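#lab-general

N.A. 3:47 PM
ok so I finally got the sequence cleaned up, no stray characters, all 245 residues accounted for. can someone with queue access submit it? mine expired

B.Y. 3:52 PM
send it over

N.A. 3:53 PM
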Amino acid sequence: MQAKILIVDDNPNVLKLLKISLSKEGYQVIDAENGEVAYEMANKEKPDLIISDVMMPRMDGIELCWMIRENSQVPIVPFIFLTSFDDAETEIRGFRAGADDYINKPINRKDLLDRVERLLSRVKNLKHIENKSEENDGFKGDLKDLSIVELVQMLNLNKKTGVLKIDAQKQGEIYMKNGQLFAAQTADKSGEQAMYELVTMSDGTFNFKVTDNISADQNINNTTMNVVMEACRIMDENMQGDQET
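B.Y. 4:20 PM
back already:
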């Protein structure tokens, strides 16, 4: 069964273009003309991916993304923004709201399909790990397949308790308690600062062990969502810095 994609834009011509491009690839496409309608459809249809314009009446894309992440039945669905603006501040706002990617208008069909395929591939990896987690007392994998932010979101959604060990450029542990960030530690940092250092790691491995015996003292008191949003902002700044150099 092909993936279901929700597209959101107040411009009917953009909706038509997206629908044709995605349908030709075999995707099941549903559409909405604003964020309010899209939010209702997301809860009803449970899409595998959302592509949304940023600037829309009634509820814009930023608010829609935030609502999806905070209050919907599909909080970790991949989310792509469409934007006509080359605006770093808008991008940062979007990533803070929980966006996974940006596509600039006018839309390049090949670029669109490449990004959709990449994000849907990550969804498959995530679901595979979720199934392994249900069957066993833990799981492991490669950070090239799933980012630390995605792993924390999955553990949060499934209310897991245990230790996520990271072996990359930096080594460290992230402790989860009933799905909430409880503590984090690297060789020289602790708490949220350790978390923000670890989320930038993209070349290495992870290993999550389910355990009720958390040995670390609590050093993260902020909400999981706030820490994740700040982590996304830091990751975005790092990516922009890499592009400039």
